[in-house]
Design goal:
This protein is mainly α and about 150 residues long. Helices cover about 75% and strands about 0% of the residues.
Length: about 150
């Protein structure tokens, strides 16, 4: 009877081990959707980017008025930290969106560099066309920000 009991408990241990190992997935799943918790946690990283987006009108006015010194100062000053903010934010996105976000940020800063060069040359038309391209890439980047679905 004692032997039977210890055998029984051994069998139970084996059964439990098999059940546990079967129920735990061997591969970690790559998330493909943004959970409401994830969306909420991203907000803190989105804020400085949206603040910078709101400042883009100032840049437009500086270019339009041919204020080249301030245009260059603005790109390196108020918009200077944007690159870092976008990089940090990109890394928080789902794997499928990370590369797209990083490419758009790279595009955007390419336009900023060309606005900077245009300002140096006092080239209004180039600065203006680069500004429009910058805005397009900026908005495409913000389009990657996951939004909570509205139920109202
Ligand atoms: Zn572009």
């Amino acid at each position: 009877m004692r032997i039977f009991r210890s055998l029984l408990s051994l069998v139970l241990v084996l059964v439990t081990t098999v059940l546990v190992s079967c129920s735990s997935p061997t591969q970690a799943k790559v998330p493909t959707v943004y959970t409401p918790e994830k969306i909420a946690s991203l907000q803190v990283y989105v804020e400085p980017i949206e603040t910078a987006r709101a400042k883009m009108d100032t840049l437009k006015q500086l270019i339009q008025s041919g204020n080249w010194v301030d245009t260059r100062t603005f790109i390196h000053g108020p918009l200077g930290e944007l690159r870092q903010d976008m990089t940090i934010f990109s890394r928080k996105l789902l794997p499928k969106d990370q590369e797209i976000a990083q490419n758009l940020a790279k595009e955007l800063f390419g336009h900023f560099e060309r606005i900077d060069a245009a300002a140096k040359d006092r080239n209004t038309s180039l600065a203006q066309s680069q500004y429009i391209d910058a805005l397009t890439d900026f908005d495409a980047f913000l389009g990657l920000v996951p939004r909570a679905t509205e139920n109202s």
